Each structure stands twice: as structure tokens, then as C-alpha cells.
Amino acid sequence: MKRKRMQLLSIPYVFWIIGFTVIPLLFVFAKAATSPEGDATFGNLIAIFDPVHRKALFLSIELAFVSSLVCILISYPAALIIKSSKIRNKKTLQFIMILPMWMNFILRILAIQMLISKNGIINHFLTAAGIGRINIINTEFAIVLGMVYDYLPYMLLPVLNGVLAIPDDIIEASKDLGADRFTVLTKIMLPLSLSAIGSGITMVFVPSMTEFVIANILGGGKIQLLGNVIEQEFSVSMNWNLGSGLSVTLMVFVLLTTLIFGRGDSDKGRGFVI
Amino acid sequence: MIAKWLGKVYIGIVMVFLYAPIAVLIALSFNASKSRVLWTGFTFRWYRTLFGSSAIMKAFGTTLALALLSAATASLIGLFAALGIYSMRKSGRRVMLFFTNIPLLNADIVTGIALMLWFVRFLPLGFSSILLAHVTFNIPYVILCILPKLETMDIRQFEAARDLGATTLYAFLRIMLPGLMPGILAGFFMAVTMSMDDFVITYFTKGPGVNTLSTLIYGEIRKGIKPEMYALSSVLFLLVLIILIAVNILTGSKEDKYITKNKEIG
Questions:
Q1: Which end is more exposed in chain A, N or C (fewer Cβ atoms within 10 Å of the end residue's Cβ)?
Q2: A199 by DSSP, 3-state: which?
Q3: Do the chains contact at B113 and A106, CB–CB below 8 Å?
Q4: Under 8 Å CB-to-CB from A163, ≥6 apart: which residues?
Q5: Sorting pLDDT into bands at 50, 70 and 90, what band is A272?
Q6: Burial bucket for residue A107 (CB in 10 Å: 0-12, 13-18, 19+)
Q7: B31 φ, ψ (degrees, to nearest 5)
Q8: Measuring CA to CA, which residue among A139, A74, A149 is closest to residue A109?
Q9: Measured distance CA(B116)–CA(A113) in Å, rounded
Q10: Which has more pLDDT, B226 or A170?
């Protein structure tokens, strides 16, 4: 067939890539490399070493790390349980577990805020039960809770797919050959689902690290993640050059995460049954 | 035995964690009291105020218009792009997929800022700038849905039709398009949901005065939540469910018909 002519069909998309992906990113780099007066500078790029920014960066990484870890600790046992259960309709169960990811992101944070705020539902019940209040809103814990709630389906999706895809034969065979449960888990299940966990980590870690909305709503604006700092440079301080410089730093960390944990390959990470 | 039971309890707890907050939102939308902790009776009052509020209805209209227009545009460009990429050699294909992955892998905040920095040069920020931004992040999802369909398609049927005298267009419309339709529909609906769900990119590319539901709710949360917002949550949740079921029916529900909200293309 006329491959050459068919290739021409992607011309509109090539223009779109240039116009709305490449050029905008070049603008970020250009802004990052200049001062507000327009002189070339490295100042915005090394601004990440400024104590305030460095602290925000470390906190972002820390909270994203904790959130990813909690998501794995919730998802992996769930996947193992579903795998070993005799439920016939595993795909439907999987569908129900990842369905909340399609609910509006802001609304899900609103729901969490409503539950944990000072006069929220959890505190209402705790007071009624005579236990007293817990103050978790506006803490790092609240932010992690929001991140875990928001991004758990993104971990469940690849991990469930990865674990459910491990052939039963292999597990049977290893058991026949005398492997105990622990050996099956460490020598069969984990190695075979490692890439799924990796793509889950990327899918939770990257949005958590670059987050500013959850921190704004559940952190009460007191806890600054790198995303919050960048957002404020654009909306409050109006130092777009500094904001761009910090964005470039953020991109580097996103890139590093994908390089370390991979994106998962095209099939394993996928699978929203509809 | 105990292990089985514990397993069920564990899955139950995960489900409660995932659904309880949403359930509470929906329950509160029918609560007669403005309080979020006291149940004083059943009411549709918040739904009436919701549909009577011009700000919310305007944002709702904007959200739907953006979702449909951006999904339609992205589907068209994405379909042509997928056909083009499919017919490319390995190197060309790799370059195209590299650029397709950029909006998927990049942090939303960076994509939003980048587009905003560029748009302010030639476009007043408003509906059209948000639309361009949404098309930009939607095209990759469409390609993601169509390309696997093309790869598993038997291209010889198309070539046979051409050999038997069909014009390229006719053969495409009669042979390839029906086979690609599930992928195109899945891509379209995924684009619709992604557009409706987006907050961060919209937040940076919108101008003052224009609101989508996401940005409107964000503003409301910071001011203090009104019960209409609970009603809105229920309506949106129902809408997304309807879309998912529609896709389910339209694209068939065979094992291989997956779409995903995750961000990757192989």
C-alpha cells in the first residue's frame, strides 16, 4: 500500500505537537533561563537550592514516597486475595475497585475534607462516642490521606492486572515442587508483578509529587509542596521566571521517576474494563 | 477458613475506604439540614437550588461544551495521526510516540503553565484557550485507543478491497472504519471524561470569568461548601456512570476492550 501517502495523514498532528507541545515547553525553558528583566541567568534554575524551595521539594518527595508506599501496601494484598479467591467475576470486582478514579478529582478531595475537617463527620462521631476529637486536617497526614484516597485506583489498576495475569500453572507447579507460601510470594508472585508495581509507583508518585490542590485544600495552605510554590509564583507573586525555573526542576524529577520505575509496558499497566 | 474470611474483610475495608466518602457526599445531597453531621429529613431542595443557580449551570454548560468539542477535535486529529503513525517505519513511529508521550508523562502543572505562557502571546485566556489545551492533552488518549486496534487489524482485507477496484476512501470507510469504531468511540469517551475531570490544566489556561465545574468547585471549597455542591457531586457521579455504561455497550465488553486512564503508550 502507499505507505508514504498514508503517513501524510499525521501532518495535522505534527503541527499540533509543534504548536502545543514543543513551543510551549520551549517557552518554559526560555522563561526559566531569563530574569524578569530579560537577562540570561541560571538563577531560576538554581533557586531550588534556596532553603524554602529545597524544603518544599524534599517534602513533596517525602509525601509522594509515603503515599506510593501506602498504596502498594493496600493494593498488593488486595490483589493476592482476589487472585486466590474463587470469585468467578474477577474482572467486575476489578472494575468496581478502580471505578472511583473516574469521579471528579476535586469532588473526591471535597469528600475527604468533609470527613476529616474539625467539625467534620468523623469528629462528630468520635465526640458522640465520647472519644474526643482528632485534629488531622491541615497536617501532612491529611495530605497523605488525600493523596492515597485520590491515587489508590491508579495503583490498584496495574497491580491487579499484573497479579491476575500470572498464570495459575506456574503457581501450581511451584507448589507441587515443594515451595511454601512465602517462597511462592517472593520467588514467583513478586518477580512476575514487579513491572506492574513499577508502573503503579509512577502513576501515584508523579501526580503526588507535583500536586498543589490536595495540599491547598487538606493542608490549609500552611504546608508548602513544590507544586504550591510554583502555583503561587504564577498566581500570587507573579514571578513567572522563577515559577518556570522551578517547573523545569520538577520536570527533571518526573523524568527521573519514570526512568527508575518505568512506565510499565503498554499492556500490563492498562486495563480499564468497560 | 479464617484466612478466607479475613481476605473478604480486607477487600471489604478497601471498598469502604474507596466508596464511603462518595456515598457520604451523595447522602448529604438529600439532607434537609444544611449541617453536614445532622440528618433532619429527606429533600430535593439542593437539587432545585443547583439547577436554579446560573453560575453552576453556566459552568456545567462550559464543561460539557469543552468536553464534547475537545473530544471530537481530538478524535479526528488522533484518528488521522494513528493511521499515519501506523504506516510509518520504526524510527518515524518512535519519534511520533515520543512526542505523544510528553503530555501524558509530564506533570499537569507543567503542561498547564507551558500552554499558558504560550497562549498569553496571541490569545486572550478564556474558552478558546482552555479548548486548545484540552485538545492537546486528549489527542494522546485517542491515539492510545486507536493504535492497538490498527495493529491487530487484518490489513489484507483492505488491500483486497483495493485490488478489487474499491477507491481508497471507499475501502477505508467500508473495511477499516467499522473495525476501528470501538477504538474511536473508546478514545472519544475517554477524552470526554478526561476533559470533564481536568482541573490543573484548566486552572492555568482559563481566564477570569470562565469557569468549568472543577474550577468552580475549587473556588467554592475555599469559600466554604454549600449543600448544592453535594447535589452537584451526585449528578456528576451519575453522569460518569452513564458514560461508562454507554461506552461499555457501544464498544462491546470483550476482554481485549480496555481503556485506561493511566498515562502510557508503549
A1: N
A2: helix
A3: no
A4: A76, A79, A80, A82, A83, A189, A193, A196
A5: very low
A6: buried
A7: -85, 125
A8: A149
A9: 29
A10: A170
Q: Say if the Cβ atoms of B81 and A12 lie within 8 Å.
A: yes
Q: Cβ separation of B260 and A270 shorter than 8 Å?
A: yes
From the CA of B244, how many Å to the nearest CA of chain A? 7
CB contact burial B64-84 (16+ within 10 A = b; e otherwise): bebbeebbebbbbbbbbbbbb
Q: Could you identify the residue written with the cell 520536570?
A: A251
pLDDT for res A92: 82
pLDDT greater than 60 at residue B226 = yes
Cα separation, B31 vs B28, whole angstroms: 5
User: Which residues of chain B neighbour A240 with C-beta distances below 8 Å?
Assistant: 117
- List the alpha helices (DSSP H) in chain B: 2-28, 45-52, 54-86, 90-105, 108-119, 127-151, 155-163, 168-171, 177-197, 200-205, 213-223, 227-251
Q: What does the pLDDT look like over A228-264, one tens digit per residue?
A: 999 999 999 999 999 999 999 999 999 999 889 886 4
Q: Which domains are seen in chain A, by residue range?
A: 48-261 (1.10.3720.10)
Chain A: nearest CA to B19, how far in angstroms? 7
CATH number at residue B170: 1.10.3720.10
Q: Which of B114, B213, B229 sits opposite A25 (nearest CB)?
A: B114
- Report the percent of chain B where pLDDT is more than 70: 94
Q: Do B127 and B181 share a domain, yes or no? A: yes
Same domain, B170 and B188: yes
A272 membership: H or E segment, kind and range? strand A272-273
Q: How far is A149 from chain B (nearest CA, A)?
A: 7
| A146 contacts chain B (CB < 8 A) | no
Q: Does the interface ipTM go beyond 0.95?
A: no
- In which domain, by residue range, is B168 found? 53-251
